[in-house]
Design a protein that fits this description.
alpha+beta, ph1033 like fold, 7-stranded mixed sheet, 4 helices, GAF domain-containing protein
């Protein structure tokens, strides 16, 4: 399968009154990937909606472990995620188990090390094939 892109999906709320890790927990449990609503320009939502199904997404949980997923469907507004500020979402199939740093592609680690709360593409020539290899290893 051809991989069109790989993304960093921190899924942390910009709201100070929400635990930053609750959105990741909800996303893993509900099988979604996305971001919150505060201060999000409409164009950012549109770009997220346009990402190809099958694209890889990486996130990190409260224990510092990494999760690899694949987008599996279209964008939708998820009102059930308002409590953790995770409302702009896409269906996502996550691996059953998290990964430690040494199993992650270097480009993924570098992107997370820079910080930030935005869903963003990881621009690296090898990150797609490396993510596919991790995915296939189950």
């Amino acid at each position: 399968m051809s991989v069109t892109s790989v993304y960093r999906a921190p899924m942390r709320s910009r709201r100070d009154d929400i635990d930053p890790h609750l959105a990741v927990e909800r996303a893993l449990r509900a099988g979604v990937c996305g971001f919150g609503r505060v201060g999000v320009p409409e164009r950012r939502v549109e770009r997220f909606a346009e990402v190809a199904d099958g694209s890889f997404v990486w996130t990190r949980d409260s224990d510092g472990l990494f999760w690899l997923g694949r987008l599996t469907g279209p964008y939708f507004y998820d009102a059930a995620g308002e409590g953790v500020d995770l409302v702009h979402v896409r269906p996502c199939r996550w691996r059953d188990e998290p990964l430690v740093e040494k199993r992650c592609p270097a480009a993924v680690l570098a992107t997370f090390a820079r910080g930030g709360r935005n869903f963003q593409q990881i621009h690296d020539a090898g990150v797609g094939s490396e993510s596919a290899r991790v995915w296939e290893q189950g």
